[in-house]
Amino acid sequence: MPLVTTTEMFKKAYDGGYAIGAFNVNNMEIIQGITEACREEKSPVILQVSKGARAYANRTYLVKLVEAAVIECPEIPISLHLDHGDSFETCKSCIDDGFTSVMIDASSKPFAENIEITKKVVEYAHDHGVVVEAELGTLAGVEDDVKVSAEDSSYTRPEEVEEFVSKTGCDSLAIAIGTSHGAYKFTAAQCTRNEKGILVPPPLRFDVLEEVSKRLPGFPIVLHGSSSVPQDYVKMINTHGGKMPDAVGIPEEQLRKAATLSVCKINIDSDLRLAMTGTIRQFFVDHPEKFDPREYLKPARANIKELVRHKLIDVLGCAGKA
Ligand code: G3H
Ligand code: 13P
Ligand code: ZN
Fold first, then answer.
1. Is 164 part of a structural domain of the chain?
2. Domain extent at residue 78
3. Pairing status of strand 263-268 against strand 20-24
4. Which end of the chain has fewer CB within 10 Å, C or N?
5. pTM here?
6. CATH code at 84?
7. Residues lining ligand 2, CB < 6 A?
8. Of ligand 2's atoms, which has the minimum distance to the CA of residue 268?
9. What is the pLDDT of residues 171-204, one digit of tens each?
10. Is residue 2, in this structure, part of any structural domain at all?
């Protein structure tokens, strides 16, 4: 089937109590790892491209690689989404390039301005058969080189969501309930330590999610910053020349719970980066004489595939839902 929007995916996910994985893509091996897992597990998937990814690969390559995945995986629904679009112009250019979904992230702007920009994107997108994700509230962490400190982050205010959705006409809403971008989601001071000395992050604000869902019944909610930062990969990186102390993510049980509620899209990027980096670091330590990119990218792609398979089955609950 051709690229699809997320409308049907989200309706089924909402009704079925699961979420669709939205994985960031930057190159061919990442796209192959993700889509091979989704194909084998019969799962719908969202492949998302950030402004930074588009700058890295240029505006043509990632679209064409995703189109190749669509040809290779004809039996699963695949949506191509712009992650964190920063302006009307970026969103328009992706819509014109064939994306089926865009995010306009004006969450750092004042409420009225966020509404105004989002509404303009929605009008253009809907005229072209494309759906729009918007955001209310600010996540901590790093995205496209913009750093938001924990102090400057803010939870979504449930009392704002009805007005925002009705005035903008957006199709899904990203909210801030304590997730955070990147591999260092929480400082040691924000966490407690368990008996093994491992950092345990503060729990997500399910009270905020429930209040938002009550006010927007049936409406798809999105969680950004939802990597779990697998400690096996952090260890693999650190024992093979890397230095990522105290990298900590969102516990998978909490994401699993969110997926059974109104959360229909869960964004995962950092975990893929950790799997790829850990695997390549280990490969070079084990095989210092090798230099063929195919030899080190092959195991990296295989580990991305297994990581995604695990997310589909054990976290998102979307395996078998294609
Ligand atoms: O939320 C941001 C995503 O992880 C994309 O990251 O801007 O470095 O491509 P990026
Ligand atoms: P992570 O950094 O937790 O993977 O979040 C990715 C994300 O939200 C992309 O928009
Ligand atoms: Zn994000």
1. yes
2. 7-316
3. parallel
4. N
5. 0.96
6. 3.20.20.70
7. 24, 83-84, 181-182, 224-227, 267-270
8. 4
9. 999 999 999 999 999 888 888 888 888 888 999 9
10. no
